[in-house]
């Protein structure tokens, strides 16, 4: 049955839990609005070489990731689905790679389906599938490069071996154009110790030249183009995104070295309790080339990312495919031996987590209500936790046959979670929903102003106008403001009144403000008092009519 229905079931799950929820919740700030706007700007400007953010040079990442999001908007429209489809498709293809890799390693349909199901139901994976950023795409290219590496290592047919090395080069080139030089480092980090251990270093050096050639051919046109158009791109990108982020004292998102160890456990939910047994079994069988390769793929990138000062949860996503393979391999082994104790315990743990969450929500709702007259949102909470609990109860009751039931629980939980969030989070973290309600009036204004980058980029995306003037904020656009053509794109507390006077003489003015502290309330106080005001959460929209000189 699995041999016949495995792929269709994975496709059904992909459509139901990855694709279907995409258009039903607003863009999260700051990442989703930023990538939506920067990619839209490529479509509007025709500049596909150098990323720009609200008309300002934005050199933190290469261009390919923006290309994919832009293509999504070009094909499906400048809407929520179009913005997110690149992420969903990337992790859907990574699920397929998991299936193919498992088939290559063990040639067992049941084990292949199990590994792919585990991968696509990892909490971090399914969560990022509906989130517009570059990490799902980069993860796809890294996964493809390492799957291709194994095919190259494992193949005896010359044609297959050459094709695999060429695909490896293609993946490295695309990964490089998505997030940078790390795409070249990670395959080498795994291939070098493995090939030395196998005494095949000469083979790697010989065939690796093909991969290098393909990677150069894929990336060189863009590299030369961006260098000619923006000569400063490489100096900023190399220093800021690689050297400073990895080792700088002022690295963004600084975390301790052990940050990823507990995160790996959380990211592996709903399969966390299988980790100890999986690691034990992998260590005991590490002399097997297949297991050794997977361990290197898991451990070495994890160690490398742990050494970096700057850390984000999504950085370890390339480590999750080998983890899914190792868990699936161990889990099916337990089933063959009729050892279902850990499987049942895993379901009990997940069931307990669901019940604790339900009790916590109930307690807080009575003590300090999270949901303020929001019966629909509260209903979705109960549905999501109900499905989670039932799915894991099924694993407890029938561990031999329904051992994959927790996957349904996690997939449903993440799919329903946006609809279950309270308005306080929706209003403040997805301001594009509120902005979209007033998008037409904002489009008709002559000038636009905002004091927060996330809200500003949402405003720019909904109005298809990158020329937002920034009010008392710079943030990640700081580098773009060093160029002379950015002059006049920012105002301060001391100049905002003069700017408003001049702007209103030319036409109406739309303003989107985040107001959540005394400083931002002061920013609002400096604006004219005669505008139309609309407010939701901590987002305030003003429409100021034109004035006569």
Identify the quaternary structure here: single chain
N-to-C terminal Cα separation, in Å? 77 Å
Counting helices, strands and paired strands, the structural category is mainly alpha
Mean pLDDT: 92
Number of strands: 8
Helical run tally: 24
Largest sheet: 6 strands, mixed
Q: Any low-confidence stretches, pLDDT <50, length ≥5?
A: none
Q: How helical, in percent, are the residues?
A: 55-70%
Portion of residues in beta strands equals 5-15%
Tell me the count of domains.
3
| Rg over C-alpha atoms, rounded to the nearest angstrom | 25 Å
Shape: globular
Q: Give the strand order of the largest sheet, numbering strands 1, 2, ... along the chain.
A: 5-4-3-6-8-7
Kindly describe this structure:
This protein has 549 residues and is mainly alpha-helical. It has three domains: 2-262 and 281-336, no CATH class; 341-429; 432-544. Helices cover 66% and strands 5% of the residues. It is built from 24 helices and eight strands. It has helices spanning 2-19, 31-45, 64-76, 80-106, 109-121, 123-129, 135-154, 158-179, 182-197, 201-229, 233-247, 260-267, 275-284, 289-307, 320-336, 341-367, 375-397, 405-420, 423-429, 432-437, 439-443, 453-463, 496-506, 518-525; strands at residues 52-53, 56-57, 447-450, 469-471, 490-491, 509-514, 532-536, 539-544. A six-stranded mixed sheet has the order 5-4-3-6-8-7, with helices on both faces. It has a two-stranded antiparallel sheet with strand order 1-2. The longest helix is centred in the middle third of the chain and has 29 residues, at 201-229. It is globular and about 85 Å long. The mean pLDDT is 92.
